[in-house]
Amino acid sequence: MIEAEPLLASLSADLAAVTTPTEVAAVRARYLGAEGSITRLGKRDFSTMSKDERRAFGSGFNELKTRADTVLKEAAARAEASKQAAGPAFDLTLPGADRRQGAIHPILSTQIEVEEIFRSMGFEVFAGDEAVSEYENFDALNIPGDHPARDMQDTFWLENGMVLRTHTSSMQNRAMRALGVPLRAIFPGRCYRNEALDLTHENTFYQLEGLMVGEDVSVAHLIAVMRDLLAAVFRKEIQVRMRPGFFPFVEPGFELDFRTTLNGVERWVELMPCGMVHPAVLRNAGVDPDRYSGFAFGLGLTRLAMLKYGAPDVRLFNSGDLRFNEQFRATL
Ligand code: FA5
Questions:
Q1: 140-194: per-residue pLDDT in tens?
Q2: Domain-embedded: residue 128
Q3: Structural domain contains residue 300
Q4: Which residues, in sequence order, are bridge partners of residue 210?
Q5: pLDDT for 210-245, tens place per residue?
Q6: Test site for ligand 1: of 207, 270, 297, most ligand atoms within 8 A of the Cβ
Q7: Domain coverage including residue 68
Q8: Which of 187, 199, 205 to mutate to test the pocket of ligand 1 (most atoms within 8 A of CB)?
Q9: Whether residue 251 has its Cβ less than 6 Å from ligand 1
Q10: 15 in any annotated domain
Q11: What residues pair up with 191 in beta bridges, in sequence order?
Q12: Do residues 253 and 270 lie in contact, with contact meaning Cβ atoms separated by under 8 Å?
């Protein structure tokens, strides 16, 4: 016959010694698992038993299994309840997990800030492409194939004859055709030149072009817009001066400098080339130069970010060096 009571007593003693659901499950495996001590009792040779003995054994065995299962289920429920009562398994005194949070790159935050300033002056933002036709980058801007000005910008040519734009001026023709005149628009974006790299020259950099075309647009408008821009960026009145500068797509052309303190010394700093849009450029975009005039400027956005944040080397911006980038977490 089955000796149920000693087995059940041993099971109760084992359960009294454990507390967690995992430990209760291990006890269950020892008694009711495939190789458990109760399960093994059922794997005996029934051929030597009479029919009555088999029946008695069967009911005793089933009762033992049911009682063992009940005790184990109760123990499992108790263990689960006390685990939940103990609360989550973490130590409040440990330092928190370091969640790395992204941030806006300083060039982009400068771009967003400048875009807002121009929007407030009625300019719209016109997005462009980085791969453009040779016509858009050069010919439309009054720079034909044999013009020496092409040498000023060492250009990356694509196999299909297009170019990686060397300046955002490449958007002028497209913008005038798409938006019509009069227009006030800016085109921010990435430009590429095969440059010798130094503190202020990268092969990949950002410009922000501005174009205003209308009847009676003059140099006075250009200067006023530049003053407002600088005052908004640097949050104080900024003195500007214009020097003559040559670009085939403006006439007259200027270099615009502004007065600031760099490394403790007050001086003029070159900020951007600009000028009145050349009549040929207007004509190439289907605009009548006898009726319309306009100004354009090519702000070096990367250089502006350098000035704004006091970055000593332009190459830091694209370096991917987190020691540099992480200083700008809170720039917006
Ligand atoms: C131009 O690109 C003209 N398209 C600007 C222009 C627009 C003139 C409209 C007249 C009318 P420039 O090559 O000087 O000009 O570049 C303009 C600005 O882009 C520079 O002042 C500088 O701030 C920035 N820049 C040019 N090359 C680089 C470079 N390699 N790395 C970083 N910034 C650059």
A1: 999 998 888 888 888 999 999 999 999 999 999 999 999 999 999 999 999 999 9
A2: yes
A3: yes
A4: 186, 297
A5: 999 999 999 999 999 999 998 998 888 888 899 999
A6: 207
A7: 4-86
A8: 205
A9: no
A10: yes
A11: 205
A12: no
